[in-house]
Amino acid sequence: MSRTLAVGLVSIVVLGMGTAVASSAFTTATIERDATIDVVTDANGPISLQDGNSGDVVFQAPSGELTVDFANPAGSTGVNPGATYTLGDTADAGSSGTYAFSVTNTDTASHDLEFAYAFTGSDPDSGVTNVEFTIFDDTGASEGAASEGGAATVTVPSGETVNAVVTVDSTGLTASDTLSGTLTIAAA
């Protein structure tokens, strides 16, 4: 066999194998990477929640979770019927004012935070906004309000903080009603 013919046959075999390999695809793969995911208190998360300076109703529970509990002051078990409570000062809720709690974006990117409130049970009085979380920037300007009737979305840049003032209105309710529910803060 001549040398030219041998080189030609080897070239054809190599080209044929290259084409066969290039057209095939893998069907499974396993790739492992390390991940560090610690569960921390609300004050230490990427979206940090900290109680404010409006009294004992809002506090960090022993578990580290931010809690709004009108049964927290000694001897209290809830709110009075026909009353309005405000935790914080809607006229001065900026960084040096009075607010129920703060939310800080400790992430390196800006986030849109959506605040929403939902009752655990049914709405005891759909004609009244019974629970409202009004969100303020560090200057004290209102950024929106979330209640059982709607959500508020606030853009919070990296390292910035917004403050919340909580208003509870039990007008028209009786001692058998409940306003308990869940505040959800969703980051996008």
Structure description:
The chain has 188 residues and is mostly beta strands. The protein has one domain. Helices cover 11% and strands 33% of the residues. The strands form three sheets. Strands 1, 4, 5, 7, 8 and 10 form a six-stranded antiparallel sheet that branches. Strands 9-6-11 form a three-stranded antiparallel sheet, with no helix packed on it. A hairpin with a 5-residue loop joins strand 7 (131-136) and strand 8.
Characterize this entry briefly:
With 188 residues, this protein is mainly beta. It has 1 helix and 11 strands.
β-strand percent reads: 25-35%
Q: Tell me, what's the shape? A: globular
Mean pLDDT: 87
Number of helices: 1
The structural domain count equals: 1
Structural class by secondary-structure content = mainly beta
Compressed to H and E, one letter per element, the order equals: HEEEEEEEEEEE
Most strands sheet: 6 strands, antiparallel
What is the β-strand count?
11
Low-pLDDT parts are 3-11
Radius of gyration: 29 Å
Distance between the termini: 70 Å
What share of the residues lie within helices?
Answer: 10-25%
